[in-house]
Specification:
This protein is of the alpha+beta class. About 20% of the residues lie in helices and about 15% in strands. The strands form 3 sheets. Strands 7-9-8-6-10 form a 5-stranded mixed β-sheet. A 3-stranded antiparallel β-sheet has the order 1-2-11. The longest helix has 19 residues, at about 240-255. Bound molecules: calcium ion (2 copies). One calcium ion binds near residues 115, 176, 177, 205 and 207.
Length: about 260
């Protein structure tokens, strides 16, 4: 979905391991990069859904050997948890995308319920269930621009780093969302990678303003995921996307004629 100058993923990322991404599944990877792959095609390509546990190896915590991992934005699948910031960055990059900046994430999340009650089925997943819901399952948890689960479900890595934080001062009277960017820890030898939105554990302190620098980018947590973004084509650049679709059709035809 469009959010200013970027296209922000509508759903929290699911991460798929794609066998033979440069050969037999090259056309599937091309579809992923165009945002057109669906679950049936992923399954037919032999893709495996990851991220319900820390199962990204051989992709390392610092993001090496991750070439077969692809972040995909689709509804009704398990969003990828347990990814370090580096693994999340690689899964976005392999899909032709990147992590959004905190400011880009903010534009996409704006207008989401904050968080309101959690009825366990339709509202933002912030308290009632205690585990991640499927992507987009909480149908009321949608932002003004159409992003699902920005508030709650999995807390989301964004691109920015800050000094590793230790203290949550909050937003005072401006918002009840958490704001944990104080008390820099300079003894740990790591920065803090920013998290946005809060998770299924955060109750009322989840929300579109929730922000934390308490986790270093090497951490893998059950309540932390991400979504990806890519630049929108500049005005008049639609022709490039047309060329991409044409290339995809040629690839598919070639594959079919083998
Ligand atoms: Ca989320
Ligand atoms: Ca809140």
């Amino acid at each position: 979905m469009a959010a200013g100058t970027v296209c922000l993923d509508r759903y929290e990322a699911s991460v798929w391991r794609i066998p033979d991404p440069n050969t037999g599944n090259a056309s599937l990877v091309a579809k992923i990069r165009l945002g057109l792959a669906n679950p049936g095609e992923l399954t037919r390509g032999g893709a495996t859904l990851l991220g319900e546990r820390a199962d990204y190896a051989p992709c390392t915590d610092d993001g090496r050997s991750c070439g077969d991992l692809y972040a995909v934005s689709i509804p009704s699948v398990s969003p990828a948890a347990f990814a370090t910031w580096f693994q999340a960055q690689q899964a976005c990059a392999d899909a032709g995308k990147r992590l959004p900046t905190s400011a880009e994430w903010q534009v996409g999340a704006n207008g989401s319920p904050d968080p309101g009650p959690d009825d366990g089925t339709l509202d933002c997943n912030t308290a009632a269930r205690g585990t991640a819901a499927l992507t987009g399952e909480r149908s009321r948890c949608v932002s003004a621009r159409g992003a699902f689960d920005a508030v709650g479900n999995l807390s989301e890595w964004v691109a920015d780093w800050a000094p590793l934080s230790t203290t949550c001062t909050g937003w005072a009277s401006f918002s009840g969302d958490f704001m944990c960017l104080a008390g820099a820890n300079d003894s740990k030898g790591a920065p803090g990678a920013l998290l946005r939105g809060g998770s299924f554990r955060d109750g009322a302190s989840a929300g579109p303003l929730a922000i934390s620098g308490e986790l270093d980018p090497t951490r893998a947590e059950d309540s932390v995921g991400f979504r990806c973004a890519r630049p929108l084509p500049e005005p008049g650049r639609d022709a490039l996307w047309g060329a991409g679709l044409t290339a995809l059709a040629i690839l598919a035809r070639r594959r079919g004629s083998r």
